[in-house]
Specification:
The structure holds three protein chains of three kinds. By secondary structure, chain B is mainly alpha-helical. Helix content of chain B is 75%, strand content 0%. Chain B contains twelve helices and no strands. The radius of gyration of chain B is 23 Å and the shape is globular. The chains are: A alpha+beta, B mainly alpha, C mainly alpha. Chain C: It is a multi-pass membrane protein.
């Protein structure tokens, strides 16, 4: 398949009846990139992927591959490969024939098709299972077949729809590395849909965070991780403590908390505006002399303890610490200003 | 729950009823079979002696060869056409939501809910008007009325259980619509299509009313020929009518055995989801 | 493709309309041409009798007691038969809903009379229940009767033929509805202290009731169109002169197509009335999942 330099999504919109599943998605994908579409379920990430694949017609907007308009083409003529969440292997075809299917459809000469099929099967380490039917394989093996089937045709773009969500935790970690390795070694361009922020951060070059059908933030994993664009992204990226408050002078007053705190404001905040202050549990520091809290629940997480604590004013906070804590303990905590992000509410 | 070793009176009643029903059924079929082999059977438990001559007589008197040929031809045509017409419709109904879908569903349900005589008489009138009734074509057309909806109803669950993402995956592999149907859906639907067509054959062999209303002398199926020979009782020996009934019976049972290789007994009756035992 | 037609296609596709719907056309044409059109044609014919006004055929049907009474006769045969089949099926299916050896064999034997159909059943009943048949022989030799009981060429012959074909039908339907009810519901009721009868009447029966209504409808449809057995084992000019016989006679004996169509339409209407009453009652019942929570 011919590659491309850029693939451009221009105001891609999809409505289902009166509901907007995806609104005005603008995105430029460069050759060789690994893009993750990230968001909670129902955010429109799968809709975006299906629109890109051609499985869903657009309600509005357009998709361009370099200079050619793509959204008018049916899926089979876009030359993309796709890995589905439930793998969608053809149950009546052997592993070999599943992988060879796309080559057959493209009319690749028999000898060449056979060679490429065997190469692809070797790539995903399934040589001894090539004659089996999908039903005889484990979940992880089926996953590998699905990947081989998608990449064997050398697609200009590989689309992956939550491909790891049906695997157990250990296998998921292995396959994560495997997919990233294939992406690099084969020089693929990949769009990857997931609801798992850790997966997205570890695999992608760039993240597109979606919520309620709208783009919230596009950026590198580091940008999204350390500087979420708004409180929703922050919430999704693991800022578990979201504390409503109000901006006063150059400080912030958090409701239910007797003291003023300072933080780093993200976005435009005027004096008196309602705000949300966000901080990750691991950034909450235990420091004698900080404001006093009582431990309510302590969960053992190996080297760390995750605790739910309550201030004397009744505000609940989550924190993580290597210090041993037990319910009923009274400790002092501190919210470091550079880690406390303050968003307009 | 406790498991009782000794059967309760309730169980006795239930099994008793079942036994009575089976005894009746055995009597009904058994007396036909015995009579068809009997030489003289009047006021005794069993005939005086046995013979197979009634079968030969039935074969020639009722011209069974053409009747069987017609029966076979009608069944194959009806099954073939109703699969060709019904499966695509079942596919769309199973896969898609579109305005008027429920209305269409009801439309396909009606011919199954209506007694055949009710629509058979007007249908026969129309077929006579266009000169189709009295021939094989009329019989086939009339039998298609309940068969097409039946195929649709039987196929819908088969299609629903095929994951739609498999079709999408085929498209993403570059398959055109005809390839999706030919290489992916058709092989996966073969068991369903076999089941549906064998059920249509069983129903068509047994379909009395519609064939009766539309058949001419050369286009009778076995069950209609049986009815005519029964209602003209007295002209032919009762035994040779029974011989014909046994032939019909055997044909049905063979079909039934074949059918049960592909389908569950309950599917012969109606489309109800089987429990995943 | 121009942008305007593209946009229009997208708007239609959003509502679920696209070229794939063309696959529905053959089947729809078949049903409309061979079912709807004849029905409308039948209505039109019934409204154009040889003499009299538009409703003359219907008036004739309803004023002539010989015709009018066929409605009552049909209902008098089909309603009790359908009711009997469903009511007999419930305890038997309830007893057999679990798994046991020979269950498949049992269901196969039960399918036999359904596949054989009414014509063969009629032939068998004539032999079996006839004055010198095995049934009467058993009655006479065991002393249960002192002269043969007449069970053919009357109401009972038709009734038995409807039971033989209708009961297995009802039984298999009820059985599959019953096995769709999660058995853990009854176990849950048992842990809460419900006895056998309470479990059946308070848990299983309410969940089964909508299925019973549907079964009744389907069994009734089957019984309602008693044509061959009414003629062969019944008394087609007297006690088992059902509507279908009247319609058939009008069409093929008297060649009065208006009267025949009118009778067929009346037959369809009566059937639909009964079914809609039953389905109307059914809609008052709980009709939802019969699983005990997560599937």
């Amino acid at each position: 398949m011919t590659g491309f330099e850029t693939l451009r999504l221009d105001g891609v919109t999809r409505r289902f009846g009166d509901a907007d599943a995806l609104t005005g998605l603008d995105l430029e994908i460069r050759r060789g990139e690994f893009i993750a579409l990230l968001g909670p379920s129902g955010c429109g990430k799968s809709t975006a992927l299906n629109c890109l694949a051609g499985l869903l017609p657009l309600s509005d907007g357009s998709i361009w591959r370099d200079g050619t308009r793509l959204d008018t083409l049916p899926p089979e003529r876009r030359g993309f490969g796709m890995v589905f969440q439930n793998y969608a292997l053809f149950p009546h075809l052997s592993v070999r024939n599943n992988v060879a299917f796309g080559l057959k459809m493209r009319g690749v000469p028999r000898a060449q098709a056979r060679r490429r099929t065997e190469d692809a099967i070797r790539l995903v380490h399934l040589e001894e299972h090539a004659g089996k039917l999908p039903g005889q394989l484990s979940g992880g093996q089926q996953q590998r077949v699905a990947i081989a089937r998608a990449v064997v045709v050398e697609p200009s773009l590989v689309l992956m729809d939550e491909p790891l969500s049906n695997l157990d935790a250990k296998l998921r970690l292995e396959m994560r590395t495997e997919i990233r390795r294939l992406h690099q070694n084969l020089g693929l361009t990949t769009v990857y849909v997931t609801h798992d922020q850790e997966e997205a951060l570890s695999m992608a070059d760039r993240l597109v965070v979606l919520r309620a059908g709208r783009v919230q933030q596009i950026g590198t994993p580091e940008q999204v991780h350390t500087r979420p664009a708004n409180r929703h992204v922050a919430d999704f990226m693991g800022f578990r403590n979201l504390l409503p408050g109000r901006s006063v002078d150059d400080h912030f007053k958090i409701n239910d908390l007797g003291v003023r705190v300072s933080g780093t404001s993200v976005g435009e905040i005027h004096k008196g505006d309602p705000v949300v202050a966000a901080i990750r549990p691991e950034d909450v520091l235990l420091r004698p002399g900080g404001f006093e809290v009582t431990v309510e629940v302590a969960e053992y997480h190996g080297r760390e303890i995750a605790a739910e604590v309550r201030t004397t004013d009744g505000l609940t906070l989550h924190l993580r610490t290597s210090q041993r804590l037990a319910p009923g303990d009274k400790v002092g905590v501190d919210l470091p200003a550079d880690r406390l992000l303050v968003f307009p509410a | 729950m406790r498991r009782r070793i000794v059967a309760s009176p309730g169980a006795w009643v239930v099994w008793g009823l079942v036994a009575v029903f089976f005894a009746g059924l055995a009597g009904v079929i058994g007396s036909v079979v015995v009579n068809s082999f009997g030489v003289r059977w009047f006021d005794t438990w069993l005939p005086e002696s046995y013979t197979t001559q009634w079968y030969g007589q039935a074969w020639t008197d009722f011209t069974l060869l053409p009747v069987l040929t017609v029966t076979l031809l009608v069944c194959l045509l009806v099954a073939g056409i109703s699969v060709l017409v019904g499966v695509p419709a079942a596919y769309v109904l199973a896969r898609r939501k579109f305005p008027g879908g429920r209305l269409l569903h009801l439309l396909f349900l009606l011919p199954i809910l209506m007694p055949p005589i009710t629509y058979g008489i007007p249908l026969a009138t129309v077929l006579y008007k266009y000169g189709l009734a009295g021939h094989l074509s009329g019989v086939v057309l009339a039998n298609l009325v309940p068969s097409v909806p039946f195929v649709i109803l039987t196929m819908t669950p088969f299609i629903e259980q095929i994951d739609p993402t498999i079709e999408r995956a085929a498209r993403m592999c570059g398959a055109r619509t005809r390839h999706v149907f030919g290489r992916i859906l058709a092989p996966l639907l073969v068991p369903g299509i076999l089941a549906a067509s064998i059920l249509v054959v069983v129903r068509t062999v047994g379909m009395f009313e519609l064939t009766f209303l539309t058949a001419g002398p050369d286009s009778q199926t076995l069950v209609v020929a049986l009815f005519y020979s029964m209602s003209a009782a007295g002209i032919r020996a009762q035994q040779s009518v029974d011989a014909m009934a046994v032939i019909y019976c055997v044909m049905m049972l063979v079909l039934l055995v074949v059918a049960l290789r592909f389908v569950n007994p309950t599917q012969l009756v109606a489309r109800v989801k089987e429990d995943p035992e | 493709m121009s942008t305007a037609t593209l946009a229009a296609r997208h708007r239609l596709a959003e509502r679920g309309i696209d070229p794939q719907l063309f696959l529905l056309i053959p089947a729809t044409v078949f049903v409309v041409a061979l079912f709807i059109y004849p029905f409308c044609y039948g209505i039109a014919v019934s409204l154009q009798p040889a003499q009299g006004g538009a409703l003359a055929a219907y008036r004739a049907f309803f004023t002539d007691a010989y015709q009018r009474d066929t409605i009552a006769t049909t209902l008098a045969i089909s309603l009790p038969a359908a009711l009997f089949n469903v009511l007999a099926a419930v305890p038997i299916a309830y007893r057999m809903r679990g798994r046991f050896r020979g269950k498949r064999l049992l269901t196969i034997i039960l399918v036999v009379p359904i596949t054989l159909g009414t014509v063969l059943t009629a032939e068998g009943l004539l032999n079996f229940l006839g004055p010198t048949g095995w049934f009467n022989r058993v009655l006479l030799s065991t002393g249960l009767a002192d002269r043969p009981v007449t069970l053919t060429h009357n109401y009972w012959g038709v009734f038995f033929s409807l039971v033989i074909t209708g009961f297995p039908f009802a039984f298999l339907l009820v059985l599959s509805y019953l096995s769709g009810i999660d058995p853990s519901l009854e176990r849950a009721a048992a842990t809460l202290g419900a006895g056998w009868a309470q479990r059946f009447f308070r848990i299983t029966l309410p969940l089964l009731a909508p299925g019973l209504a549907t079964t009744f409808c389907l069994t009734f449809v089957l019984a309602f169109s008693v044509f061959p057995s009414a003629i062969l084992v019944g008394d087609p000019s007297g006690s088992t002169r059902v509507i279908s016989v009247a319609a058939y006679e009008a069409a093929y004996v008297r060649y009065d197509y208006a009267a025949a169509s009118a009778a067929a339409i009346v037959m369809g209407a009566v059937e639909l009335v009964v079914i809609s009453i039953v389905l109307g009652l059914r809609s008052l019942l709980y009709t939802g999942s019969t699983a005990g929570g997560k599937g």
